[in-house]
Design goal:
mainly beta, Hypothetical Protein Aq_1857, Chain: A, 6-stranded mixed β-sheet, 3-stranded mixed β-sheet, globular, Iron-sulfur cluster assembly accessory protein, 2 iron, 2 sulfur cluster binding, FeS_cluster_insertion_CS, iron ion binding
Length: about 110
Amino acid sequence: MQLPPKVTDRAFARLAEIGASDQGQALRVAVEGGGCSGFQYEIALDTPAADDLVLEGQGQKVVVDAVSLPFLENAVIDFSDELIGARFVIENPNASSSCGCGTSFSM
């Protein structure tokens, strides 16, 4: 059985700060082919679809489509607020390597 990704309190708190659910939006985390390492993360606010896995916390939602789910098994979706910028980040135990941009990885 696949373990779904986990979403940190920080990530849910950031979604609450920007009022995502108030606008009927969720944070969509998807995996697509491309990027410098073979796969890349697509992270955006989106409307949940019927076949999405929905992860809920603090009144907010993070959604993952069925195709992306195997790539994100047991991953952690977090929010990082550092000097270089604030962004949602993915800690993915399935990635064998990743690149400096933080959005591309290989398996």
